[in-house]
Amino acid sequence: MTxxxxxxxxxxxxxxxxxxxxxxxxxxPYRHSCYYPMFRRVEHLLRRSGSRSVLEVGCxxxxxxxxxxxxxxxxxxxxxxxxxAVKQASERTGRPDLFFACDARSPDAYAMAFDYDTIVxxxxxxxxxxxxxxxxxxxxxxxxxATVPNFDSRxxxxxxxxxxEVAARYAPALDIERIETVKKPYSTNLSLRxxxxxIRWARYKPKLLLKLLGFGRIDDVGCWFVVxxxxxxxxxxxxx
Length: 240
Ligand SMILES: C[S@@+](CC[C@H](N)C(=O)[O-])C[C@H]1O[C@@H](n2cnc3c(N)ncnc32)[C@H](O)[C@@H]1O
Hints:
Blueprint: H1 10-19, H2 36-48, E1 53-57, H3 63-71, E2 75-80, H4 83-93, E3 99-101, E4 118-122, H5 131-137, E5 143-149, H6 163-170, E6 174-183, H7 192-201, H8 206-212, H9 218-221, E7 223-231
Parallel strand pairs: 1-2, 1-4, 2-3, 4-5
Antiparallel strand pairs: 5-7, 6-7
The structure holds S-adenosylmethionine.
């Protein structure tokens, strides 16, 4: 069934974040969110590549920021064009100084990008028609980690069926070193209590039970493609 797409402006996301998202996912502690396996992979890649400072594009309600801050390994700044997202990210982390409201399509968003060795952008590019213009604003020669999904949504302007499709779109704009696949958990809320409840409800439904236990197929339960590499294009000039 074709999904009715939502307008890609900040008001759409202000509403989504005020309502909490599907099953309140954007308000969950990061460890309980279905995004947690993907966030962990991003942090693993950051650590492995020796990143020390992160500029996050489209930080949402700050779940990944919270995880990164909890590690104590990174200096961090994040922005989002949704004022509601920035408010919730500030509240979640108790660090309003680390977040600001800005549109990823504006060069202003990257005014301080030269202070950060890595650009992180999870689950944002598929929300933006001009995703390649956004990437072109990222300063050259930085490490980058971005994720995009293999599933559609009312908020998505595109999605990808394979790592090859991801490479075909982004290799002209980025020096891609790897594209990893992270399976999406079937449950939105990964807290033990919620998972136990879902498993009990599904105990006579073997197919559902298998998905809840993590045995679902990627093209059924969904996945994220995690793209790691370096930015290539010339971003806004450093103001010296
Ligand atoms: C699915 S959420 C992902 C949030 C967060 N990165 C995460 O992984 O949890 C998509 C985010 O992209 C942000 N976004 C979409 N278009 C944007 C734009 N042009 N500029 C800044 N943020 C944008 C939305 O406000 C929203 O926070």
